[in-house]
Amino acid sequence: FRVPADVKPELLMVTVVDAAFQSVLALMEDEQAAAEDLWLPFALEQFYIGATPTNEGYVYITPGSKEGNNKLRYFDLLITTAAGGIVAALSDFTVKSIPARPQNGHARPAGKTVSMDQMIALMKQVESGHITAMEAEKILLQH
Question: pTM to 2 decimals?
Fold first, then answer.
């Protein structure tokens, strides 16, 4: 990876980790097209932070320790500096398959998203026990 030099130092780790996540999804592009499913980031088992990231480095992606299936895939990611220092190690980064089309067969409306405020409110409901994680997922899939 190569991050522009003008990225603020406090955003560098977030930028590098996001790039690593996007790399996993890019590797799955053929699988997504063949299955007509969307693969979305879903969970992460462990996240180890090591050295301060630099503007150049590498992301190594390997299969995770758990065996995937037709709905879940697991990956381990190792993020390093260009010199080989470990920036972060992510274990069992999970991506989940959802149908590109809802069960009614209609295409999902383009551009319809959940706002950050709506997402935070939804997560607070899960955290407080008012709804389950599965109910939250159903609400998100309806958007």
Answer: 0.65
